[in-house]
Amino acid sequence: MKHAGHLAALALPLVGGCALLPELSSEQAARVRGPLGTRMPHPILMNFPHLGLRRAVVTPSGELAAGATLSYSSIYEAGASNGDVVRMDGELAQATLRARAGLGKGFELEAQGGLLHGGGGSLDSFVLEFHDFFGFPNAGRRDVPNDQFDMRVVNDGVEGYALRSDELQVQDLALTLAWGGEEARAGGWSQLVRGTVELPTGSESDGFGNGAVDFGLGWNAELDLGRSTLFACASWAHPGASSAVERAGIQLFERVCVGGAWELRLTERTSGIVQLEWLNPLSNSMNLEEFDASYVDFVLGLSHDLGGRWRATLAFQEDLVAAAGTDFSVVCGLGWGL
């Protein structure tokens, strides 16, 4: 992983400052807020199911929970060889909406959808300076004009994917059934299993969906450590291939994700959270690292109780591999009961 040490250093104050934290009552220290509900904001990856990090408890029977997440991301990945082209240059704004309902007997139903917009944006100069300051790679950003938009994949001269610019469109809709306990297990790991089906509500021709029904399975766990909590996840998903992907002869890998997170209660109302998720490559159909490299999604953020069941989150996100993923993302969220 390129420059992983630089990003890991950003999380050290969260660990090293533990001795300076205010004292909390046992109830306050045990108030788990959970992972930040992010995913790698890559335009192609967002067309497939993602069963990543979350709390390993279900919504109580008869209760509802809902939340919205807004992310703004900058990505630059460019490679070409023998008629193969991968170009991911632009900025993405995404709004994700989710709602959960406790069904009883340990079951929960979640619906998740989103809106996505891609454009040239205005973050390129900032990202260049940000990467230079922390020593992160810029992956050729200085060799092209700032604030362009070009997101496409070409295999053997045939276009397999393209995202339409300056369009705000609906993404695919995921319906997920989870089974687990309504409360975390004291003194051990709590576990949850999920199954998901993703419906093709996004436009296949414009790049906001793949035009197919996808499905997947996931496992989540959490372990209480008193003032902090560990989280883990593992999932598999079958990606549907769009007609453009099939015409281009691109063979997509089954989607695999494993991850972990650590939450520390900083104050009675605020937690600091560090997350890592590894995702396997999209495909090996093209010998370009921009398409056949894995992803390591690093997230560092805060979760803050606003009162009642309301909670706000703010996070910074980056791909540690820096070969195929998003270069920089800011994510904010607002949840009720999540």
Q: How would you sum up the major sheet?
A: 12 strands, antiparallel, barrel
Structural class estimated from helices and strands: mainly beta
Query: Which regions contain 5 or more consecutive residues with pLDDT less than 50?
Result: none
* Total separate domains: 1
Order of helices and strands: HHEEEHEEEEEEEHEEHEEE
The tally of helices reads: 5
Strand arrangement, largest sheet? 1-2-3-7-8-9-10-11-12-13-14-15
Total beta strand runs: 15
> CATH H-level name... which superfamily?
monomeric porin ompg
Report the end-to-end length measured between terminal Cα atoms: 32 Å
What's the CATH class label? Mainly Beta
Protein described:
It is a single chain. The protein has five helices and 15 strands. It is mainly beta and 338 residues long. It has a single domain, classed as Beta Barrel (Porin). Strands 1-2-3-7-8-9-10-11-12-13-14-15 form a twelve-stranded antiparallel barrel. The two termini are 32 Å apart.
SSE topology:
Elements: H1 4-16, H2 26-29, E1 64-81, E2 84-104, E3 107-119, H3 124-134, E4 150-155, E5 158-162, E6 168-170, E7 173-180, E8 189-199, E9 214-224, E10 228-238, H4 243-248, E11 255-265, E12 270-279, H5 289-292, E13 295-307, E14 310-319, E15 328-336
Antiparallel strand pairs: 1-2, 1-15, 2-3, 2-4, 3-6, 3-7, 4-5, 7-8, 8-9, 9-10, 10-11, 11-12, 12-13, 13-14, 14-15
